[in-house]
Protein 1
Amino acid sequence: MHDLVLLTRPADGVALLTLNRPQALNALNQDLRDAICERLEALAADPSVRAAVLTGDDRAFVAGADLRAMAEATPESMAAGRGHLIWERLRGFEKPLIAAVRGYALGGGCELAMACDIIIAGEGALFGQPEIKVGVMPGAGGLARLIRRVGRPRTMLLVLAAETISGRQAADWGLVSETCPDVEVVPRALSLAATIAAFPAGAARAIKAAAEEGDGAMLAEALAAERRWFLSLIATPDQREGARAFLEKRAPRFNTQG
């Protein structure tokens, strides 16, 4: 199972997960979903990991779902299966997760990237939700997250007309965080992960939790969640250290493991 998602530690506090099903352009079958879940669970329990990068290869981040598993599926079998567990694991992953996207990010691949906190896309990346071509629709956030990120008119262009957009266009639309040449995608993502890993882990967890709680909520509820998580960081050792370091004009010595 671990051969499907390779794990390396390229920098202190940083884990790199590389999807490794190249013969199928990293299409999401159940084995690959399970392998991603296992890796995320291990990283969640490892205090030495403070940020992670998820990537594929230069041809594909994830080209979509493996349609062979859907060919004979029923609503009951799909609902009773384990396919939803990866999305629950991603939502519950408390550490910053960066998607480094090159090549195809279609269907479940686009959904997987959007489930991450930051998306670094190559200029040659290709994003889309073409599920309508096989008689279905996005079912793991491709509709809900797209509408929140790029608005309904552009979402409908991708979902109803099955159009695709480049990494550069995805950045213009606000779908991804930034674009860069394909060869720079993984180094840029790893550099960002190393920067984040040097910050207080408790603050990073609070930021993720407040963002998740506030996403889609009414403004008053989102503001209340942000305030509550902000207050939870006051008087913590890292907050005290950050303030003292600023006043003393020195580099802070944070407890990065939180």
Protein 2
Amino acid sequence: MSDALVLFSGGQDSTTCLAAALERFERVETIGFDYRQRHRIELDQRATILTKIAAIKPGWKARLGEDHCLDLGVLGEISATAMTRDVAITSGADGLPNTFVPGRNLVFLTFAAAIAYRRGLRHIVGGMCETDFSGYPDCRDATIKAMQVALNLGMEKNFVLDTPLMSLDKANTWRLSEQLGGTALVELIVEATHTCYLGERGQHHEWGYGCGECPACRLRAEGWRKYRSSSPH
């Protein structure tokens, strides 16, 4: 058992990672980033999730520590993407969708490591996944492993970058949340987390709030369908 810092956006994946960390570590702190994301309503959901997740299982409240939220507006200023601009979501000539924010996860991990260094935290937990994703190169396992080496060399530390969702598809991410916190955690993720790239929270679906059409919504909905089809509930 050790201490951890969780990259916590207010979305499904990071909430599942937070639950996994609360099961595993003695002290868990969280960090979020405001990079002027188009769906920055996700940041508004963080406080609600932190309050409610602490009550799901005995011991989680005592383990949940300080929350940090950093202003990384400069990343939004230099990123002309569908995640930071009001433009249609399309794919480029390189095959990458224009929702890809170059360097985002690398920047996030660097700042998270700086906070972890100051706070004396060894494990840094992120929801990166190379199974159900849009081909983002900074979500690949090889990228995270290389980043761990760079951070440890550059800060003379022994950080561990944990990515519990790396090999899971969205259906298995839903299953993991149930394993970690039962139906209470699944319901919290449905009702409180935000995934929709467009920041839409006016439409409620059985899998949560969102436009239902953007890639993030479609991925979440399809994962939910597969999860429910194999669930005894």
Protein 3
Amino acid sequence: MKLDVYNQDGKKTSTKVELNDKIFGIEPKDHAIWLDVKAIMASKRQGTHATKGRSYVSGGGRKPFRQKGTGRARQGSTRAPHHVGGGRVFGPSPRVYYLKINKKVKVLARKSALSYKARDNKIVVVEDFSYESPSTKKLKGLLEALELNNKPVLLCTSDNSPSVVKSASNMYRVEVRDSIAFSTYDIMRADTVIMQKSAVDKVNEVLGR
């Protein structure tokens, strides 16, 4: 598959770039995408939730009343779950939500996500660019020229460019990733994936092995 390369004005150039069919043209595996996105979302959870069971609630050390002769059910503590001020039954406790995903499944998930975008013509290739200083205006102008303003966009740069990252920091759902450092979740939540030409070459090289 070949795509046109656009310049900073949003116009087609005479250059075309080749997309590796082993990456952008496979039959997508929905289950692999689901597994990878599930693991990514799980790793974002803090897991610091906690409640106090009966062993953690203060008080209740003395038996509230004698065992027999009162006509009431026997009670050993006022901090049992059925008492007001008692402990919580089966409440959440701190835990780690990390899910292990095989490396091959992660790679397959990213290939599947990219194949979906390529199938829907949601991949745009632009010339390599960088800014001497952060400029939201320039980056916004590029998105407007590509008719992608106010849409969720994933921008894959050729290398680590702090000025481009800062330019997109206050833009609506514009995520910037360094060439191959994007995840399946980044691809799927974006409406369109914009890739610099060098980033496409890097993706073809790394994921096409």
Protein 4
Amino acid sequence: MNKFMEFLERFLLPIADKLNNNRYLSALRDGFMVALPLIIFGSIFVVIANFPFLDKLLSEDAYTAYQNALGPASAATLSIMGIFVIIGIGYKLVEHYGLDAIYGGGVVALAAFLILTPQVLEGVSGVIPTSTLGAQGMFVGIFTAFIAAELYRFFVQKNWTIKMPPGVPGAVSRSFSALIPITLTLSVFLIIRIIFSYTPFETVQNFIYTVIQQPLTVLGSGLPATIVAVLLIQIFWFFGLHGQIIINSVFDPIWYALNDENLQAFQAGTELPNIVTKQFIDTFLVGMGGSGMTLAVVILIFMIGKSRQLKELGKLGGPAGLFNVNEPIIFGLPIIMNRSLLFRGYWRQL
């Protein structure tokens, strides 16, 4: 056991620490946090608009009018969630460098993504398909936000900026200061778009989807990858690292893409193609009662526990666990650095 613990501490802990402090993964994680309230809002109205048996209680016209009235709630959030994630990632990454996050981060990342996005729908030009603004375009948006932020940082650090006199208002000064870095950054993406138009893929979206996104979504929807992800979450938590945040930074783009495929299938009235989605992971694997599904531990404490100390801990952690807050259990039981729990379970101490 000691050798195994030494192995985990020597090899796994440094890797987890690097992942936790990686600026790109941190920006990716925070970018999704920016979009989270909007995703929740859209999800709530998807449920409200599709209550079971509602189509039986209302006439066909009334039911259609009801769904049309609530439809914009999800169309303006879930269907274009990629935009919010892109803005969040660009903003957070540029903020990490201590630069003007709104100009060089959110605005540039979004503009670069739109430059790469084909603006043709069924032969009509000047129209952007909403599918490319949602989870389907997520991977393109992530790479675009990272590259745009780095290019902007590079041009700013080269001092390729316009310096305004001291008396100029701050907002005007920042706008002119960002003009040259933004122009150069967006020009790079325009060149990339032109280059891809002469390839068999035609667009960057087609290239990323074929080469990266599609294989990863197939891998991420499978049982082996899901088991590995959930296992790593618990191992990271054992060392006191927030395993769910670390793993979500890597897997969230995949799980949200799978979720979007289900949403589109549901709206089309066809069978849902994926079991593993973001909601599935959070609800049935790691989220019930908090990371690690510790609500089951609280229930077992009350059912078979004999320790008075643990029962008091259960009274403290139980109500919070109903709202997926389980820090009292993780730190109070404790779960972190508890070898007995990792290897043999907590049965003897209960």
